[in-house]
Structures are given as C-alpha cells and as structure tokens.
Write a structure and sequence with these properties.
Blueprint: E1 7-13, E2 19-26, H1 35-38, E3 44-48, H2 55-63, E4 66-70, H3 83-90, H4 93-104, H5 116-131, H6 141-151
Parallel strand pairs: 3-4
Antiparallel strand pairs: 1-2
C-alpha cells in the first residue's frame, strides 16, 4: 500500500531486569539514531544487537563513559573482547525475554488503537506494569564478576 504506521520500542535494562530507559521511534527509522538519548546519563558497559552497530556512535558513548559492545557483521573483522564482555554479550537475550514479557504479560502489543493517545497510554501503562512485576529476568552477574577477578593475575 505504500505506508507503514509501525513503531519500535528501544529499551535499556540493568542486570536485575529493571527498566532504566526507553525510547519509541517510527518503524522505518534507523536504530542508531536514539542511542544518545537512550544512554544519556548512563555509564559502564552496555550490550546491543547489530542494529546499533556504529563506530562513531560507539566512540561518542565511550567518551561519555559507556562502552557499547555488539556482535560484528559477517563482513567485518572480529573485535577483541575480554572474557567478561563476551559473557555479557551472550546474555543479551534477556532483553528479548523482557520484550516478550512486555508483549504477553503487560499487553503492549495491541494493533487496533483508534487514536494515537490510546496507543501511547497503552504502551506507557504496559511499561509501568512491567516495573511492578515481582520477578523479572536477571543476570547472575555478581558470581561471574567474582570468578573473572579470580582469573586475573594480581
């Protein structure tokens, strides 16, 4: 038909599965555009998928104190990562689990809204409902960090 009214929900979660930041964009917009907004006040280590792959954006975030790690495309050179970064990147599927819970439990995937206001209210109320869930998918990252400290020579 030549038109598309989709959207993308970009979320940032911490190691406990708690929602830290989110951003909604149009469906046909580049995934790398909202990176600065998503990670505005964050520092440390973040994992993303190949859609967020951009050397210039990664350098900008690194200057602000955030290291964004992603897998590389098949035609790119492999990056050098620490064992902990490889493990952390392999656990990125937890974000997909959170998105699945947002769709199924919090019901943000509803396609028959008649007004944009109703659409926004549904998405935001689903995100708020997720924050109230007692059990969220999380990483057992403390044990891995302690184990990696044992492996490094002192």
């Amino acid at each position: 038909m030549g038109w598309f009214y989709g959207f993308k929900l970009h979320i940032v979660i911490n190691h406990l599965g708690e929602l830290v930041s989110f951003c909604m964009t149009r469906g046909h917009r580049d995934d790398r555009k909202p990176l600065a907004q998503l990670f505005k006040h964050l520092q440390g280590l973040a994992a993303g998928d190949k859609g967020y792959l951009s050397k210039s954006k990664q350098e900008t975030l690194l200057n602000k104190g955030l290291k964004l790690i992603t897998r590389v495309r098949s035609n790119m050179k492999e990056k050098i990562m620490s064992t902990f970064e490889k493990y952390f990147l392999s656990q990125r599927s937890i974000v997909e689990t959170v998105i699945g819970q947002l769709k199924s439990i919090c019901q943000i995937e509803h396609t028959r809204h008649r007004k944009p206001d109703n659409f926004l209210i549904n998405v935001i109320s689903g995100l708020m409902a997720y924050t109230l869930l007692p059990r969220k998918p999380s990483l057992k990252i403390h044990a891995v960090a302690e184990f990696s400290n044992l492996l490094t020579p002192s």
